[in-house]
Structure formats: structure tokens, C-alpha cells
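Minutes, project check-in
Item: structure for the 225-residue chain
Input as provided by the requester:
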Amino acid sequence: MRGARSIVFLEVDLSAKAPDGRLSNRAECRCFASGREAHSSAATTFGRASLPYADATFDAIVCNFGIHHVPQPRVALREAYRVLRSGGRLAFTVWTTGDENIGLALLNAAIKRHGDPTLTTAPPAGPDRVRSIEECIRALEETGFRQVRADTVSRTWRLANGRALFEALQSGTARSGARIAAQSDDVLPAIVSDVEEHAASYRDAEGIAVPMVAILACGVNAAGT
């Protein structure tokens, strides 16, 4: 029987700013490792350089809403594959981009009506996308993973009101927050009011219950099997 499992959690931070004040396209990935080999925290440039671990170190890797932010997702996935043991598993999540993702859809519609949806302080997304079920599956298979699966997961996000939704997206998300930051000050009140108005459709006795939908994708390192 094998000993304690070794897992790495990858957290991508896009908060670094370029000299012009825009978000940098350098995605910092904080790696929180646990298990018999490591009890440590490290930072690296996930998706551009090597993770700071030897080959075949971990039994599992989890990347929660981070892989779609790195400049080169397939480079990141290959690095994840490298540091996984044979039989090790990778799981990651990304938001869906359709209208079923109500929290994001409310903000996007408000910006379209009152602001400029083409503005953002975030770096442009590259062609190496992982934003649909098909793209997630293809990326995992092309980087060596087997037993690949991807499906949608729906949850309800509970907040006090539409303003709380706007503020949560403003401060707690990378690309939505960057789109808000790029809007001019004179249109922000109208955007907030629009989100509040349309979020009221999801009000219940406890506040608002906003449907959110993500894609959960996973695969197995099948090397040596």
C-alpha cells in the first residue's frame, strides 16, 4: 500500500502590473505542495517556465479557475503532466462563457449597454484556448493525458444584492475585474445600476441566488501503463 498522497494546488495570480498600469501577461502561479515529499510554498511562472519540482513528484494536481489565465495553457498542462506520477490525476476548472453563467452574463450585458465591452486592462487571450468542453478535452489529450473527461458543474452563488455581485466580480475575478477597471468613471454608476436591476430577477427571501456554471476537466498521467 502506498504512503500518504502528495498533492499540489496551483493558484494563478494576475495582479502584477505592467509599467502602463495594465495587468501583466506574466501569470504568477503559487504552488502549495503537501505530502511526504514537500510541505512548502513556492512561486513560478506557470505556463512559461518549469514548475519547481522533479519529474513524477505528485499524485494529484488541482488548478481552480486558473488554467485559462496562463499565456500558454498547453505548456502549463505539459508541466503538470511531467510532475505527476504514472496514474496521477490532474483536475482543473474554467468558467463557461455562455448566457447560462448568469453572474458573468449580467455584468457583460451591463457593460455592453452602458460601457465599452472591448476595453480591458488584462492581456489578450492567446489562440491556445481552454474555454469550452471540447477545448479542455483536446488540450488534455494533446498534452499526454488519458481517461480525459470534462463536463459542466452548476452551482448557485448567494449574495445580498446586485451591487454585492458587481463588487465581488470587481474585486474577486481577474478578467471581469479588468473589464470593469477599464471602464470610464462616468459610466460605472450606470453599469452598477443595470446589474442591480437585472439581478433582482434572482431575488429570494435571503438575497439573490445567481446561477453560475463551470467546466470541470480531468485526466490521468498514463505514462508507463
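Outcome recorded: Helices lie at 73-83, 102-114, 133-142, 162-172, 175-182, 188-199.
No further action items on this chain.
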